[in-house]
Amino acid sequence: MASAVTLRRRAFANVFRLSCLGRHNHYFRSLSSSSATSNSDASLPGSLANLTYNGPLAPTFRRLKIFSLSTLGLSTVISPFIFVIESSLPTTARIALASTALGTSAISTTLVNWVGKPYVAQLKPILAEGETLDPKKVVTSVEMTTFSLALRKRVTKVYDTSFLVPAERPFASWRLANKMMFTNEELENKIPERNSEETVAETFGENGGLLGRWIVKWNIHPEGGTVVGECHEVGKVVKYFNVHEELLEYSIR
Fold first, then answer.
1. Structural domain ending residue among the three candidates 97, 116, 135
2. Which residues span the membrane (predicted)?
């Protein structure tokens, strides 16, 4: 059972994250809209570049997606020739053969997408200009890079990592929380405004354009002494992330 000191520390951390979330959103939305921002490690400050996590299986997933898409395309192109080439096979057998080839390829491609889509190719803490990070402290804001099945880059910025919770599905470490609950004691009575909304995370495309936001709406329940944050999606947001947590040099959640 956690000690009183540990509980007080957790409560303080929650209050700090809630009080700073608005400032994080304003700063980081301005940062993400700047065309001068570079995604390469070479442009990062030394302290930040050293703390950048790179997924060891990212090249493998990239090759697997290319192979899977190529196989699906080849199956789609070749299948019509099954009906053109002269053969002793009856029409029903040809249909079954073409359907099997296309179905198997489509299922394998879907499986590759389901497994590989959450895989994080790169993760780095979000720091203000001139800020340095103590690896012994918990990181409260991160930027994670994933790739779609078509190898389109997706950059998701999570401004409050307390909203990253364990994922319930295989091949994913974290997901964005649908609901968060705090007690008045945990918040030390610093209650957010009823029905106020804050941006928890944003996903950007490869050209830097905003694709979607993950927004929390705060509901106050004075009779139960709790504050509940219910999250919803606006646009298209990457919600699942697969990270080798043992390779991280700092704590995130």
1. 116
2. 66-85, 91-115
Q: Is 122 helix (H, G, I), strand (E, B) or coil?
A: strand
Give per-residue pLDDT as tens, 151-162.
999 999 999 998
CA 239 to chain centre: 5
pTM: 0.76
DSSP 11-72: HHHHHHHHHHHHHHHHHHHHHHT-TT---SGGGS-HHHHTT-EE-TTHHHHHHHHHHHHHHH
Instruction: Give the highest mean pLDDT range of 29-38, 150-159, 223-232.
Output: 150-159
Q: How many distinct structural domains can be found in the chain? A: 2
* 190 and 76 co-located in one domain: no
Residue matched to tokens 């990270």: 243
In a domain, 252, yes or no: no
Residue 46 and residue 104 in one domain: no
User: What is the C-alpha to C-alpha distance for residues 210 and 202, in angstroms, rounded to an integer?
Assistant: 7
The dihedral of CA 163, 165, 170, 171: what is its sign? positive
Print the domain residue range for 142: 4-30+39-57+122-247
Read off the DSSP letter of residue 224.
T
On whether the CB atoms of residues 219 and 47 are closer than 8 A, the answer is no
What is the maximum span of the chain, computed from C-alpha positions, in angstroms?
80
Q: Which amino acid would we find at residue 253?
A: R
For residue 44, the tally of other CB atoms under 10 A from its CB is 16
